[in-house]
Amino acid sequence: MHILKIENLTVEIENKIILKDFNLEIKSGEIHAIMGPNGTGKSTLSKVIMGDSNYKIVSGFIKFDGIVINEYTTDERARLGLFLSMQMPLEIEGVTNADLLRTAVHLKEGNDFKLFDFIKKLENNVSKLKMDKEMIHRSVNVGFSGGERKKNEILQMYMLKPNMVILDEIDSGLDVDSLKIVGNNVMNYFDEFKPGLIVITHYQRLLDYIKPDYVHILKNGHIIKSGDKTLVKEIENNGYNFINSSDFVMKENNNNE
Amino acid sequence: MNKIILSDNNFDLNDIEYSYVEDVINKLKIKIKKNTKLELVIDKEIKLDVLFELLDNVKLDLIIIKKEKVKILTKYKLNTNSILNITEISVSDNINERNIFNLNGEHSKLNFILKTVCKNVEKYDIVVNHNCKNTESNIITNGVNISGNLFFTVTSYVPNGNKNCIVNQQNRIINLTDKECLIRPNLLIDEVDVIANHSALIGSFKDEELFYMERLGIDQNTANKLLIEGFIKNKINKNLANYFKKYWR
Q: Average of pLDDT values for B60-87?
């Protein structure tokens, strides 16, 4: 059992507070969806969990399995088992997918790394994701469509087998068929390895495939409402403005007491 | 492939007219009369003047590998419809190089790619003279500075009247030190009817690129090596890139 716990986290970038007194706990085998309007700190949250040095933690803690990881570097967090699938995967010219993944898996497995097993696993996962095999040998994300880039992120997840997964808008740029492939593969991974899963999304359509246990609405750097998946339906019907929010006001008052 | 190795004055050339005179400054003249490929390897400390002439309607694929301290002036004359593709790599400690390209014939075309990893002092001065209309030059200079000073000066001239020229420059230095590196990208164009692009960028790798790799558990040192490998390998063949592999292994 792995636990990611975020306690009273306040984060700023360029003297602007992005997350304020943020709290969340995710355990292995749980799926949490985080939704909210644009610019409310969803992607910031994912990057802060992974230790992006552009963000400054003003107060609070990020704990993984009871250890405070605030000072851990990004690669150290990844080697603990955290994984972030990025909203906008970068192009890296000249570095092939195979080189990138081989390096990452080799560093993770150390002396246990076996090239033949790696290649077999890579080919198997590429096939599962219905990716073109040639993509393995192409520069990372260069010339990839939006959907191919997102599949590539899921391929990285499958190769690294993380135990705490953050998917930041994995559905953006995906057509209906690709969404189904990505959604089903994420759920297959979840069913097989039971990681903790944080899904950041704007839309219900992804949650048709990835069924969340908890749904949180993020606004102005806070979670203003949490619930089960019926909350997604409410948002679809009414937008985010319907939560204006008694919960939020109550929370603010409580904090002031 | 035709090959010249200057350490032992080995000239393994077919269908290429040449002369070589050893002196304080060695002089090499090469005339290309038909489509061909040539590899020039400089693996001794040398001062050298080189003249390449491409006759009408020929293509030369030229690879230049510099392994030792070199001071070199190379002039290229491109006649009508000639195409010159150069891939040049420097694995030496000390380079002082000047290349002058004269695109003398209509529809002559130059593609030049330079890759280097700089440890000491390297200076490259590249001049492209579009002496005729409908000529094209594409210059890519890529260097990684790991402990020295690296300088690129790239100057493209198009005089008035030479219409429909295409002039491209992409210059980039990845500077992994605090030492001085400089790019002077000059487009001196005195004609309106020209397509011209240039970019010049000096800096280390982007934070976003490093973060993208580090979130996969790749430490910063290894990520830097991977990015150097990618930067050097991009647009050149694997065999040439292998000359640099000690920098990422």
A: 96
Longest dimension (CA), chain A: 61
Q: How far apart are CA A17 and CA A58, in angstroms?
A: 9
Report phi then psi at B43, rounded to 5: -125, 35
Q: Which residue of B has its CA nearest to A108?
A: B217
Distance, in Å, from the CA atom of A192 to the CA atom of B164, rounded to the nearest integer, reads 61
Is B3 in the A-facing interface, judged by CB distances under 8 Å?
Answer: no
pLDDT of residue A257: 33
B218 → closest Cβ in A89, A94, A107: A107
Look up the ipTM and state it. Answer: 0.91
- pLDDT, position A238: 82
> Are A94 and B232 within 8 A, CB to CB?
yes
- Cβ B217–A156 below 8 Å, yes or no? no
Averaged over B65-84, what is the pLDDT?
95
CA distance A196 to chain B (A): 17
Residue B213 neighbours by CB distance under 10 Å? 27
- For chain A, say whether B249 makes contact (Cβ under 8 Å): no
* Distance (Å, whole) CA A202 – CA B104: 59
- In the block, residue with structure tokens 């700089």: B118
Mean pLDDT by 10 residues, chain A (257 residues): 95 91 95 91 93 94 96 96 94 92 95 95 93 92 91 95 96 88 93 96 88 92 90 84 55 40
B-interface mutation test, from A49, A85, A92, most B Cβ less than 10 A away = A92
Q: Where are the domains of chain A?
A: 3-256
The answer to whether B199 contacts chain A (CB < 8 Å) is no
Contact B214 A78 (CB under 8 A): yes
pLDDT at B86 over 90: yes
Q: B217 vs A73: CB contact, 8 Å cut-off?
A: no
Q: Are the beta carbons of A41 and A19 closer than 8 angstroms?
A: yes
Take residue B234 and report the two structure tokens written for it: 């991009």
Let me know: does A226 contact A36? Beta carbons within 8 Å.
no
How is domain A3-256 classified at the CATH fold level? Answer: Rossmann fold (3.40.50)
| DSSP H/E element including A176 | helix A176-193
Using CB atoms, which residue from B215, B220, B232 is nearest to A78?
A: B215
- Among A residues 132-191, those touching chain B with beta carbons less than 8 Å apart: 139, 156, 160
Q: Which of A52, A53, A94 sits opposite B234 (nearest CB)?
A: A94
Which residues in chain B touch residue A103, judged by CB atoms under 8 angstroms apart? 218, 222, 226
